[in-house]
Amino acid sequence: MAKILICDDSRTSRKILRGILENAGFEVVGEATNGEEGYQLYKELRPDAITLDITMPVLDGIEALKKIMAEFKDAKAIMVTAAGQKTKMVEAVKAGASEFIPKPFEEEKLIEIVKRVVQ
Amino acid sequence: MFTSFFGNYLKTKNVITQEQYTDVKNTQKTARVKLGLLAVESGLMTEKQAEEVNTLQTQMDKRFGDIAIEKGYLTDEQLGQMLSKQGDAYLLFVQTVTEKGILTSEQLQEQIAACKKDLQLTDAEFEALKSNDIDKIAEVVLKDVELSKVEKQYIELSLRNIVRFIDNHLRVEKAYKTSKYEAVAIANQNLIGNHSMFTAFTGEAEGVVALASIFGKEEFSKVDLDTLDSVCEFLNCNNGLFATKLSETDVDIDMEPPCMYAEEKEIVADELVVVPIYVEDKKVELVFAVDKKVAIN
Hints:
The complex is a heterodimer.
Chain A: E1 3-7, H1 11-23, E2 27-32, H2 35-45, E3 49-53, H3 61-71, E4 77-81, H4 86-94, E5 99-102, H5 107-118
Parallel strand pairs in A: 1-2, 1-3, 3-4, 4-5
Chain B: H1 2-12, H2 18-30, H3 35-41, H4 47-57, H5 64-70, H6 76-83, H7 89-99, H8 105-118, H9 123-131, H10 134-141, H11 149-165, E1 171-172, E2 176-183, E3 186-193, E4 197-203, H12 205-216, H13 225-247, E5 253-255, E6 259-261, E7 265-279, E8 282-290, E9 294-296
Antiparallel strand pairs in B: 1-7, 2-7, 3-4, 3-5, 3-6, 4-8, 7-8, 7-9
Helix pairs in contact in B: 1-2, 2-7, 3-4, 9-10, 11-13, 12-13
């Protein structure tokens, strides 16, 4: 069972994401509410993949991704994006993002993406 | 949308009761417009012909459309067109209130005339409200307020997204401008880039709760940070789609993390645009400003 860490400042998003992932058989090992917390929890929990919301306080998703990738070259990060974040998506690809999940979440698409990343 | 708009008008004029309004809305969820009413309203059959077919239906095991074709009142093609219109919101409303004996057809027509007069709506504007087309409805509610292109685009896109993600029976009232807005709570997100925008959902507590519950797929009961978080998520998705729309014209904006205020606040700006929206008949307000300095006190 693949272990996933969720990093999103929105409780609603975390809850919906956790529900979808757990129903699909993934193990959600932790939740972080900003990029810095996400980085710290990644170090501690070493999940198979982390979902990173792009727009977050303290440390945004791109900066958190850079910190994680600098330390863990094989890290698999799935960026959670609202529409209209093309520039940020390009930045995320350059920083090593594995995939993107668009908001609002579409269950089937989301599961397909996470499966592809952790396989 | 038509039922929410016109049903609410009739309710405020004490023509129908709250119970009747709720009953009509609930009935409409599963009802289809009868072909006889559609044929008469479309001018394809006279009332007399429709009554004749209705009578024949009581004597033989045949459908309305089959009898009307046999009698030469309708063609196959016309029947096909009518079947596709059976979900028509206006006709469903007419059918439901008349069949329930709440109003006669004549009384209904009188009320439509009164509504147009009271709300100063032209025939074309009333037709737009009948259409259930959110873009046409937006034209009507925005007609009296002077808006920039970006402001208009933002309202139109937000309304489309509320129809898409929250409530396709929403009701919208006329947008207006103000410099001060007293809020019970605020779900806010600022946008930066080629335009600097303040965007927020606020309104009455029960409206905010309704929006949050539908989008978050969770039953919220009061306005607190969890409820506002759900509203902020909707606002974030809405603003993301708006950023995409603007990027088509080489206008770049980016979203900042949302902010929530679960207590009474005052929003102050040179100019704020306010759009009253009713989600499940509960009021939320879209409050925003483009390229204006905004303070939350």
